[in-house]
Amino acid sequence: MIKNRAFIILIIIIVIGGIIIGTGIIYRNTKYSLDKIMELLNSQTELPNNVYVEQENFYGTSTEAYLRAKIYIKDNVVYTYQDGTESQNIEMLYDFSRSELIAIVHDLKTITYFSTGSSKEYILSNNFNYDWLKEYKEQYKYLGKETIDNKTYIIFSITEDNIKNIFYIDVENKYISKTENYRRDNNEYKLETTVNYKYLYNVVKDEDILKFDSNNYQDYTVQGEIN
Which residues contact 34 (CB under 8 A, 6 or more apart)? Predict the structure, then answer.
């Protein structure tokens, strides 16, 4: 009787193990349509209330960023700081409640005032709103899943003419964390640029946002209209 119970328990363990393994295989081999990708991504049509974004751009296989950007967003204000091997040292302050943009180019010692115009849409489409992907159903291809540094990524490509863009979705956080841009040369796609993104929510403090005071830049040339 005890032997029969042990045998039954063993069978149950094997069945449960088979279900778990089978489910894992199905999960790994699931093919995602573009519609499924859009459901997975945390696409946003309005600026988040509090988020920090880091962006690094690289040429080819280089490990030295030609552009680095830090973006702080809090309460409808966006502060960006960028530099890099091929970028000027620039600070920009977008105050959407006042429709005002201040750009400080330290290399040129200039301060320029603009209207924010379509700046919000630009920031959204580059960092938060992925709706533009819907236009590329015919060019879309699912490439699979990959685990890097204990994180799972869903990978897909958009190919148009001689350009192929490969996207890595951070499954846990539901955003695109890396894009690779390839150009076809003699029937071979060669990596041109890579862009890495990192998002941290609810970490931005008031002191992270530039407190702009023109008195700090008295030797800078001021351009544009001051509200």
Answer: 133, 134, 136, 137, 140, 156
